[in-house]
Amino acid sequence: MVFLLVSLTVLHLVTLAMLLIATLEKSWWIWADTEIRDLWYNCFHDNATKTWLCAATNESDWLQSVQALMVLSVVFSSISFLVFLGQLLTMSKGGLFYFTGLCQAFAGFTDFAACLIFTFHRKEILNDSRDLSKGRFGYCFILAWLCVPLLLVSGVLYVHLRKKQ
Questions:
Q1: Axis-axis angle for helices 139-160, 2-24 (nearest 10)
Q2: Mind listing the pLDDT tens digit for each residue in 106-125?
Q3: Which of 12, 43, 46, 114 could form an SS bridge with 54, CB 3.0 to 4.6 Å?
Q4: Average pLDDT, the chain
């Protein structure tokens, strides 16, 4: 039981870290190797100074919904972890972690919705006339998709976890 508890805690922390990286870091969409777009900035590589120059993204309704859903996912997962820690200290023996699991599942669903919106509406989100086949998804987008099953599985595990001591 202790092994399951420690494993679930580590899984939760790793997933939360992946969510934070996917939400805040660059690289949701890459045009060649000189331009990167994420949820917050458009960045161009300046060869003269060997630095990245970033400007705020052009806001669209689809982009704002992806931003909001990713932030909600981080918030739900963070609340889930804090509630889990509180329940470990205050819950009576034999109690189930329903609220923790529910928050974690909501984090998974909001992350899933954000990834779906970005996948199917990337043309509107990127606001670019270029051919999308010349770009590719970045590692943050892939991290966001990897978080979906991890969040949902950990949410289900929390619901079935019973406090023994």
A1: 150
A2: 999 999 999 999 999 888 88
A3: 43
A4: 87
C-alpha to C-alpha distance for 117 and 67, rounded to whole angstroms: 10
Structural domains of the chain in order of their starting residue, each with its CATH number: 1-27+60-163 (1.20.140.150)
- Separation of alpha carbons 50 and 113, rounded Å: 36
Task: Specify the pTM.
Answer: 0.88
The 3-state DSSP class for residue 105 equals helix
CA dihedral 140, 119, 75, 1 (to 10 degrees): -80
CA end-to-end span of the chain, whole Å? 10
In whole angstroms, what is the distance from residue 17 CA to residue 95 CA?
Answer: 28
